[in-house]
Amino acid sequence: MSATATSSSRATTRSAATLAGFGAILLWSLLALFTAASGTVPPFQLAAMTFGVGGLCGCATWIARPARARALLQPWPVWLLGVGGLFGYHALYFSALRLAPPAEAGLISYLWPLLIVLFSARLPGSGGLRAGHLAGAALGLAGVAALFVGRGELGFTAGALPGYAASLAAAFVWAGYSVLSARVGQVPTDAVAGFCLVTAVLSLACHLAFETTIWPADAMQWGAVLFLGIGPVGGAFYLWDIGCKRGDVRLLGVTAYAAPVLSTLILVATGYASPGPALALACLLIVAGALTAVRASRAAPTGI
Predict the structure, then answer these.
(1) Would you say 109 and 266 are in contact if contact means Cβ atoms under 8 Å apart?
(2) How far apart are CA 214 and CA 157, in angstroms?
(3) Which residue, of 123, 255, 265, 281, is most buried by count of CB atoms within 10 Å of its CB?
(4) Which of 116-125, 191-200, 231-240, 259-268 is predicted with the least confidence, judged by mean pLDDT?
(5) 192-205, pLDDT tens digit by residue?
């Protein structure tokens, strides 16, 4: 195979993996809708249920390909990264929601896409940090901030500092997990099934320790929980793993800012929220940020 053909094949693989990462972002945009539809199930209980479903869905694929189960035979640092990323982020984020207002906690936690852009500069073959990626991430963050400000929900208070700290820690954990996943690219995505199942067990332990059990009230709420496990809290993590390991991590980081805006658009379309000028501004800023990042990625080396 010629050098040109090899380069073209790598570019195609990289583009396909990046598209998989975009799929994760699209699934995460459905998270708010189906969480709202799942009723009043407590956060850690919901995490235990949905990560359990997500993990079992991954294991189900091994029926046709039993050899894939060997993906679970990983050294402890890989397990620490996988479980630490999935459970660590959600535990910190749920704690932040208990200690700080949801809007502020959500905005601070959404520093993770910007952190991904910053951290990815240390990846082999990244070519260093490019101004276009930074500008795109900054525009995306501004878009998310505009979305929260438009709702009139922001009001930072000193009493919520522990919650803000937990939100910031969650952002660093998820960004670190995403970028470090690229450094263990040899680990098969099938291993994510194991990470999800361990996360489900740890979430169940936290639920039993800190929450009162509330089951979904009807078939619709049970359906929402099932879909969460298959999609936003299941399939999304498999797609994100593919995107981070073989795709353009920096572009994924910038594009991730679309998730809260798409989520709001879906809530508006389904009657859970009302439209407003802030939503339009957020869309414009995030689209501008994504286009800026795309342009930077096209000019960057493709050897990550």
Answers:
(1) no
(2) 31
(3) 255
(4) 116-125
(5) 999 999 999 999 99
